[in-house]
Design brief:
Layout: H1 35-60, H2 63-75, H3 85-113, H4 126-137, H5 143-246
């Protein structure tokens, strides 16, 4: 039975073969990677990706609770208030602060995540990753350094997914809060309009009542004057009649 038989790792079964265009990848002037190095890199990355993917999926379920804790700490112990314009605006400001923090984290992690492959490793197929790694192997004699840089790139790329996911949640919450703010502002405007209409109606009713009272008072005064004048005339006529009788 032959010794040292080479067995292809499962990741290459049915996959596109590794590029062998050594004249276009910079190897014409560099070191040609050994077959063992090329054969080992795929399984190595698969193990790293599997490990980080599991950690990402486990951590993904904690993003909502983590954001809630951060928001609670940022409120300084005050309860969330999304029933008033001021309360909603405060919540929007808090989420803006957290979003800026996440953008800063994404920027910092991106420099490490995209360094080895020249872009997001999670956006590349395994075949593309291996080809790019082989190019790097052709320029370096330190295989361990290549593996370390590749793993660091994948690690940073997965770590970047956490702030990316958190930023997405914050954007969703911000959109919902803005919609709620618009509803609250519209409700306040409608309530103010109703109050103004009711106030105008009450003022009109008060003016009408005052006018009626004034008219009634004027009518009573006129009636009293007419009654007094009639009594005076009657008294004058009686006095005149008595004087005529005495004469």
């Amino acid at each position: 039975m032959p010794q040292n038989q080479i067995t292809l790792p499962p990741v290459y079964v049915g996959a596109e073969p590794i590029s062998t265009n050594f004249t276009l990848g910079g190897w014409s002037t560099g070191r040609l990677p050994g077959m063992g190095e090329m054969m080992q890199f795929g399984p190595f990355i698969m193990r790293a990706v599997t490990e980080w993917d599991a950690q990402f999926k486990n951590g993904l379920s904690l993003i909502d609770s983590s954001l809630s804790q951060e928001l609670g700490a940022a409120r300084g112990g005050r309860p969330e208030n999304i029933s008033t314009v001021e309360g909603i605006q405060r919540e929007l400001d808090l989420r803006h602060q957290l979003s800026e923090r996440r953008r800063s984290e994404i920027q910092q992690l991106s420099s490490a995540a995209d360094q080895f492959y020249g872009g997001d490793p999670l956006a590349l197929t395994l075949h593309q990753q291996v080809n790019k790694a082989i190019l790097r192997m052709g320029r370096s004699r330190n295989q361990e350094e290549i593996y370390r840089l590749a793993q660091a790139s994948h690690e940073a790329a997965y770590k970047r997914r956490f702030p990316v996911e958190a930023l997405g949640r914050l954007n969703q919450q911000t959109a919902a809060l803005r919609a709620r703010l618009a509803n609250v502002q519209r409700a306040q405007a409608e309530a103010a309009a109703r109050a103004a209409a009711q106030r105008a109606q009450a003022e009109a009713a008060a003016r009408a009542a005052a006018q009626r009272a004034q008219a009634e008072a004027a009518a009573r005064a006129a009636a009293q004057r007419a009654q007094a004048e009639a009594a005076a005339r009657a008294e004058a006529e009686r006095a005149q009649a008595e004087a005529a009788a005495r004469a």
